[in-house]
Design goal:
The chain has one helix and ten strands, in the order H-E-E-E-E-E-E-E-E-E-E. With 173 residues, it is mainly β. It starts with a helix and ends in a 16-residue tail after the last strand.
């Protein structure tokens, strides 16, 4: 549904405001992009990140922000498809439910209401961050081979969810 809404919004913003040459131009009443997008490092965890930004230079009645984010590292050209979206009235905004030890790319747009329509700014700068690591899931398929009275050989497969770099395995008898 969000993808459809995003396409409709984009079409509305750029379809009616063409210059004589046919090049799309934004509506003059839309807010300018939010500025100085960043991650608040002290609030970064394995499953959440707090994003902050400065208000647009030209707010034009900005009354909320749309935060777009998706897994991985992207450029503006390939970012919008399949992005997750959330809204907030003002910065900062905490994104939760993220995956540990994973790269995310984020951008923010300012939104205002003009009559019965909604105008959205151009996107802010894109930022990419990585969530912190977390405890891995249990090792898979633990089994002993050739047990003897003085030794045992243990074998296992790595955990399904690494959630970071595995530095060591602790074996408790």
């Amino acid at each position: 549904m969000y993808r459809w809404l995003w396409c409709l919004l984009y079409f509305y913003l750029y379809s009616e405001s063409r210059t004589d040459g046919g090049t799309p131009t934004p509506h003059s009443n839309e807010p300018s992009p939010p500025r100085s997008l960043s991650v608040i490092k002290r609030n970064l965890t394995s499953r959440s990140a707090t994003i902050d930004w400065q208000a647009p230079v030209s707010s034009n009645g900005c009354n909320s922000y749309v935060i777009n984010y998706r897994l991985g590292s992207y450029t503006a050209a390939n970012f919008a498809a399949d992005a997750n979206m959330t809204t907030t009235a003002s910065p900062p905004c905490t994104l939760s439910g993220l995956q540990p030890f994973t790269f995310y790319t984020v951008w923010v747009q300012a939104v205002n209401a003009e009559g019965s329509s909604t105008l959205t700014s151009e996107p802010s700068n894109l930022i990419t961050f990585k969530t912190l690591s977390d405890a891995p899931s249990q090792p898979e398929q633990l089994r002993d081979q050739n047990p003897e009275s003085t030794s045992v050989l243990l074998r296992w497969r790595r955990p399904l969810h690494l959630n970071g770099v595995i530095a060591k395995y602790n074996i408790m008898l």
